[in-house]
Amino acid sequence: MSKISVTLALLFITLTSCDRDEEKQFLITKIRSVSKLATAEVVVTKLVGGDLNDRGIKSWFRDINEKVIFNTEATIKYGIDLRKLSNQDISIKGDSIHIYLPPVEILNFSYPHEKFEQLYPVSHFDKINNRLKIEILDEYFRQAEVDIRKKLKLFNLDSEIEIKTRLFLESFLQKFQFHNVVIEFREEENA
After folding, report:
1. What contacts 132, CB < 8 A, 6 or more positions away?
2. Which backbone phi and psi does 180 adopt, to 5 degrees?
3. How far apart are CA 55 and CA 67, in angstroms?
4. pLDDT tens across 3-33, in order?
């Protein structure tokens, strides 16, 4: 082989690999731009309550009911954080593309106290002004949040979000002339 042939071959390889790297970077930028993709928002209501007297606190007034019950609401947004996509996650060969996406995760968990509704006539929270009682009530809410987070897997939204993400990305990538689109999801890091 002549030096010119070798040089042309190397130049061709360099130019085509640059195009592929630029193409990958372009696709990653486009995919990241829809980073809120495939999200599902779930609203969970939970009754939270207890008897403040059971925690060793006695009321000075016998007529005050120390039982507290609240209806609470948490809003959880599931999705795929596409900002975590890197060049190594995309493989392009001709009109085929293979993408490894990050796993489905909780993107936002909101459990605002504004959504805690005191239920009447059982609760008389407005008459509970003891700081220790407020701290106990706060502990009830923290335990309720932990319980909600533990039970989120019961919703089994991961597979639904993965399906919707696949459908969206397949049609999105077909606009870029990819006829064979393979999308896989990475496993959770803490699994």
Report:
1. 57
2. -120, 105
3. 11
4. 444 333 433 344 344 455 676 677 677 776 6
Among 43, 40, 50, which residue's Cα sits nearest to residue 72? 43
Residue 60's pLDDT band (cuts 50, 70, 90)? very low
- The DSSP code sequence of 122-139 is T--GGG---HHHHHHHHH
DSSP class of residue 188?
Answer: P
Pairwise CA distance, residues 137 & 128, whole Å: 10
Q: Is the pLDDT of residue 57 over 60?
A: no
Handedness of CA 11, 16, 22, 25 (dihedral sign): negative
Q: 90-93 and 180-185: which strand pairing? A: unpaired
Q: What is the pLDDT of residues 175-189, one digit of tens each?
A: 888 889 899 998 876
How high is the mean pLDDT of the chain?
75
What number of CA atoms fall less than 13 Å from residue 30's CA on the CB side?
13
Q: Shortest CA distance to 123 belongs to which of 71, 73, 74?
A: 71
Tokens of 9: 């071959």
- Residue 183's SS3 state is strand
Write down the pLDDT at residue 85.
Answer: 83
Query: Sign of dihedral through CA atoms 83, 87, 91, 94?
Result: positive
Contacts of 34 (CB under 8 A, 6+ apart): 82, 172
Structure tokens that stand for 138 in this block: 């706060």
